[in-house]
UniProtKB/TrEMBL annotation:
<keyword id="KW-1015">Disulfide bond</keyword>
<keyword id="KW-0732">Signal</keyword>
<dbReference type="Pfam" id="PF13948">
    <property type="entry name" value="DUF4215"/>
</dbReference>
<keyword id="KW-0677">Repeat</keyword>
<dbReference type="InterPro" id="IPR011936">
    <property type="entry name" value="Myxo_disulph_rpt"/>
</dbReference>
<feature type="signal peptide">
    <location>
        <begin position="1"/>
        <end position="19"/>
    </location>
</feature>
<protein>
    <recommendedName>
        <fullName>DUF4215 domain-containing protein</fullName>
    </recommendedName>
</protein>
C-alpha cells in the first residue's frame, strides 16, 4: 500500500509538472509576455481566452502544453529592431513540433500601423482567427522590424519547420497584393495592405515550399530588384512574398484548372489525395502509399498503338493518351482512376474528355453525356505530370 501511495504521489507530481501551463479551456491562445503586442487586445476582443507566459514560464512549456492551445501568438512588440525572442528561440525544439495547424508569418510591423479600421488591425484579426481555426495548434508570428536593417539572414525561431531566410534593408514598398484565397485574408484587400508608409519590412527569400508547406500570402508587387528572384503568380502578378502562410490556398488553386505555378489542381484544397492544398504533386517519386492516379500514355506510332478500337491515341498536355469518344467512359466506377480519368487543362474546353489505360474499352455513356463540358463529371480528375512516359508512373 505504501509503495502504491508513493507511486501515486510520484505520478501526480509528474502530471502536475507536465500540465503546469496547459490551456485552461478549449478556446485558449498562448502568448509570450515580452511581445504580446496589440494582438493580445485583439484576441481578447475576439473572445479567445488568452494566456500570457513570462520567460520562466515559457521555459517550462512542454509540447503537450502547447498542443492544448488553439494557437501560439508571437505578436508584434512595435518599434523594436532586435528580436526579443531569445526564450522562444531557445526552446523552439519543444514547442515547434506541437504546431501542426495553420501558420501565418508576417514580415512587417502591424503594431505600428494598427488602430480601428486599419488594414493592419484587420490583418492581425484575420490571421489570428485563421491560425486558431484549425483543429490542430496554429502559429502566428509577426517579425516586426527585427530584420528591417539586415541584408539576408536565417530565422532561427522558425528553423524547426525548415529553412527560412529573410532580408530587410529594402526600399519603401507600398504596393501589396494578396496571393491566396482563404479565410486568412478575410476582410483584407490589396488597398488595406498597401501604403502603410512602407508596407514591407522583411521579404522571404527562402522558406519550405513543398507540397502542404508554406505559400506566399501577400507580396510586394512589382518588386524591382530581380536579383532576389521574382515569383510569378497564377493571377498574372509578380513580386516577392512578405507574408507567408501554411494552410491558406494559393489564388486559383482548387478551381480544377491548371494555372501558372501549379503542378496539379484536383478541384480541392485538401492534402493527402495526390495533389496538396497548395497545388503541388504529393509523393514525388512514388512509394507504397502513392495513390494510383491513371495518366497512362499510349504510343501514337502505327502498329504500336495499344488503344482499344473504341478510343484514339490523342495529344494532351501530359503526353499521348487513349481518348474515349466525347460522352463515353469505361464500364467501371467513376473513381477507378487506374482505368479511366479526366485531365486538368490550362485552357478550358476539354474537361469532358475521358482517357483510359491502353486496352480499356470505352463503351459506356457518361451519366449526363448530353451536358457537354459537364457530361462526364462522375469520372475523377487524374493528377498527371507533364512529360510522363510509360504506364502508370505518374505522379
Ligand atoms: Ca488552378
Ligand atoms: Ca487535393
Amino acid at each position: 500500500m505504501a509503495i502504491f501511495m508513493k507511486t501515486l504521489l510520484f505520478l501526480t507530481s509528474i502530471s502536475l509538472v507536465f500540465s503546469k501551463h496547459a490551456a485552461p479551456d478549449k478556446n485558449s491562445l498562448l502568448f509570450y509576455k515580452l511581445i504580446s503586442g496589440p494582438e493580445l487586445a485583439i484576441a481578447t476582443g475576439l473572445q479567445y481566452t488568452t494566456v500570457v507566459l513570462t520567460d520562466i514560464e515559457w521555459n517550462e512549456l512542454t509540447a503537450a502544453d502547447v498542443s492544448s492551445y488553439k494557437a501560439v501568438i508571437l505578436g508584434d512588440p512595435d518599434m523594436l529592431n532586435d528580436s526579443p525572442l531569445a526564450i522562444p528561440v531557445m526552446n523552439r525544439d519543444v514547442w515547434s513540433p506541437a504546431i501542426l495547424g495553420n501558420i501565418v508569418v508576417i514580415g512587417t510591423d502591424p503594431a505600428s500601423h494598427g488602430g480601428a479600421g486599419t488594414g493592419a488591425d484587420q490583418l492581425m484579426k484575420s490571421a489570428i482567427t485563421f491560425v486558431a481555426s484549425d483543429p490542430k495548434t496554429g502559429l502566428y508570428v509577426a517579425l516586426s522590424e527585427y530584420y528591417g536593417y539586415v541584408d539576408d539572414t536565417t530565422v532561427p525561431l522558425l528553423d524547426q519547420f525548415g529553412e527560412f531566410r529573410v532580408r530587410g534593408n529594402l526600399d519603401c514598398y507600398n504596393k501589396a497584393h494578396i496571393t491566396v484565397h482563404s479565410d486568412a485574408v478575410e476582410g483584407l484587400t490589396d488597398a488595406l495592405l498597401s501604403n502603410w508608409g512602407c508596407s514591407v519590412h522583411e521579404l522571404f527569400l527562402k522558406y519550405p515550399d513543398g507540397p502542404g508547406e508554406f505559400v506566399p500570402l501577400a507580396i510586394a508587387q512589382d518588386f524591382k530588384d530581380t536579383a532576389f528572384g521574382i515569383k510569378e503568380f497564377a493571377d498574372g502578378t509578380s513580386g516577392l512574398p512578405y507574408i507567408i502562410s501554411r494552410g491558406a490556398p494559393p489564388i486559383k488553386c482548387g478551381d480544377g484548372v491548371l494555372d501558372k505555378g501549379e503542378e496539379c489542381d484536383d478541384n480541392n484544397t485538401v492534402n493527402g489525395d495526390g495533389c496538396s492544398y497548395n497545388c503541388m504533386i504529393e509523393n514525388h517519386g512514388g512509394g507504397p502509399t502513392t495513390p494510383t492516379k491513371g495518366c497512362d500514355l499510349c504510343d501514337a506510332t502505327v502498329g504500336l498503338n495499344k488503344c482499344d478500337i473504341t478510343t484514339g491515341c490523342s495529344n494532351t498536355p501530359y503526353g499521348t493518351m487513349c481518348a474515349c469518344r466525347p460522352g463515353y467512359r469505361a464500364a467501371v466506377p467513376g473513381d477507378n482512376i487506374d482505368q479511366h480519368w479526366r485531365l486538368q487543362w490550362s485552357i478550358p474546353g476539354h474537361e469532358h474528355r475521358v482517357y483510359v489505360k491502353p486496352g480499356v474499352v470505352c463503351d459506356t455513356l457518361c451519366d449526363h453525356w448530353q451536358l457537354g463540358a459537364a457530361g462526364c463529371a462522375e469520372v475523377s480528375i487524374g493528377v498527371c505530370k507533364p512529360g510522363t512516359t510509360g504506364g502508370n508512373t505518374c505522379p
